[in-house]
Amino acid sequence: MPASLEGEPPSSVVEAGLRVNPIHVIDLAVVLPAFALAGASALRGRATGLFLVGPMLTFSVLVLASLVAAVRYLREDRTDDPLANPRAEGHTEKSR
Asked: Considering the entire predicted model, what is its pTM?
């Protein structure tokens, strides 16, 4: 969000050498239109729309759960964890 407010691409996109985030492209080009078409079809009572609403709602709940888990994981203080913080006490370099 800060990068959007500044008018700059996010650092993760720049570091990867991309112009846009491919996740956003897939979401806006495939997922969002599919949800809109399935929702409109379900509101009209069509069998296809009614069939697709369940899996799409399930997909939405799973994506939300994974995002919440990722945010919680990233906000945790892992300064003592040698796997998350190589400079933590007890971390040893493996010889190559």
From this structure: 0.61
